[in-house]
Fold these 3 entries.
Entry 1:
Amino acid sequence: MTTVFDLILRRLVQGHPEQLLLLLFGGQPPDFIRMADSSLPLSERRADTVMVVEAHGARFAVDVEIQAQADPHFAARLLDYTVRIHRREKLPVLPVAIYLTPEAEGSPPPYGFECPGIRVLTFDFQVVRLWEVDYLQPTLQTAAALLPLSVLESRAGPERIA
């Protein structure tokens, strides 16, 4: 029965969008321009790394995205991945951007957008700048797999590469 109401209301909304805007915005609705395609395709997307972890008794997913060059759409893509991972894993998601070089860094978090006068979305994510990491800290000294990354540190000299 719900689908019948859904179909009827969808037809009403599509047939009279200006009147729906009155319902949503009251006496000063925005101008109606056009109906947009309402299909929301689920294209195949692949995150760089997704890990399920647990800390302090709470389980969550960590999405790690590695950026080697600037991408003006990176934050929106990261938001898309975060939502997809959350829906699939049914866990909170910590999104993390790892920038390899300063040139790879795009707009800083938070990412968001608003409609006139209404903040619709604010999306925050963690940032790791490999050139700012102190690879000499004891915790990282024991992580041999990360040793090659230490040459990216801004203070690393030729002796580090050797």
Entry 2:
Amino acid sequence: MSSPAFYASPRALATTCSVLLGLTGLSALWNAAAVLIFGAAPESPTDTALLGAGNIAEVLLTLATAVAFIMWLYRVRVNVEVICPQVYQRGRGWTIGAWFIPFANLYLPWRVTADIWNASGPTDQHGVPQPIRTGVVNAWWTTWVIGLVLGRLEGQAAATAAESATAVAAVLAILMVRGLTDMQQRHAEAARTAALAAYRAPAEHA
């Protein structure tokens, strides 16, 4: 059974995600350039070392980014239960488990993120979420999957394209993380304003 939901600002986690995503994107660009210059399988020991160092850096940064991103995604998922509790959402565990189900992990993480995005958008006077564009979420996930697919292919062109797609996906992910975080923060600020007004109202009429 899940613990009771409470709102906590996701901004610190969002900042960590954004920094790590930026570094991952830069490492992907480095590797794309390295493959273009040295080839996918360089013969020179120096070139091989440079390409290998870039690959290791990208792997380590990707792992760190994945941990930070999942922590952020879990936090904004819990926040949704406070922001819009009447909207059905997949259980919190899907923010973690969706990434580890073979084949389904090409779809479920996007679906979970899109659901959270939609539930965090503007609401009407009754608290019902209003339609909101999910273009940045869709673009982020599509580019990320394209990078994964291209990374399975062999050859210099495929490797360069895969790294480039990863870099673009990192930028789109930053925009998505910041956008979703800002939407939730606006809800929190509106709730604080309403609570303060309700607190002051009796005193003003006394």
Entry 3:
Amino acid sequence: MSDYLHRTIPNLKPFNFDRHHDALFIDQQWVLVNGISNKKSIYTFKTDNILEIARKDIVIKTSWTINLNNILSIETEDGMITVSAYFKDDDILVLNNQEKEEFALYINTTKYEDDLNSIEDIQTFLKEKYTKKVSTIIYDHEFYFIENSKEFGPFKVEELAKKVKDKDISMYCFVRDINEYDYSNRLRIIDLIKELE
């Protein structure tokens, strides 16, 4: 992966044919983020190596292939380009041009009900996506809390919320994730509970 891409978008996972091709890549509606304010484009990679690019009322059909090293060749209006594919997560795809320091960022809108037509729509999409993700992580995760210089736990957030409701502990007790070693993040039980609301 090029250094500039890694610096711009950290924690990318390389395209893995077995994991990504059928489940996350094929027949999905990928909205191109680059230049969305000027022209919205939706890319759909089909199983028969057809790439459909939808723009307003026009659908352009072109071709794509993938090689053994998971490098894609895509026929574009400007000719053939070679890209390596990465996933930021299941809904964000990055195609990195092999010949230039350029990349294209796509968002999978197949299961998203609202249209993405602008930068503001993308910001809303990402905010909703990551708020839901954080809530899920917090809900499933366990935390220790400290009260009167003693540590207790680990507990899930719903257990901590019940203890607060029953007035067994203060909502202002500091908590730490089970993978952290101290309370330097200054996170309190009330902060966790707010994330779930």
